Amino acid sequence: MRSVRRCSRAGCANPAVATLTYAYADSTAVVGPLATYSEPHSYDLCEEHALRLTVPRGWEVVRHDGEFTPPAPSVDDLTALAEAVREAGRVDRPVEPPADVDQLAGRRGHLRVLPDPLAD
Length: 120
Fold this sequence. Notes:
This protein has 3 helices and 4 strands. A hairpin with a 4-residue loop joins strand 1 (18-23) and strand 2 (28-33). The chain has one domain (1-90). The chain is flat, with a radius of gyration of 25 Å. By secondary structure, the protein is of the alpha+beta class. The chain has a 4-stranded mixed sheet.
């Protein structure tokens, strides 16, 4: 299931609707529709940041003509969500304890109580 991607700008929690990619060899910033997958060398932007993007002197911005719209959920996303909800709600699903429960029960914690040297 695809989660909602957020704007890459610090402090912005708006949903991403555009992808920014830099072409360093051409001194160009390309702002286009939201890419299908998040790429390591590109940035997801909300509509406000996609429209207000500025670049250094000598660089060019190539912007998508038209409106930026958030991607609609696909049938695959909705099907995956429905299956996850059904699986979580099954009463016959066994709940298995973690494999190392026995080791954790006998383990001594890392915190200790130290006596107060001022208390008599």
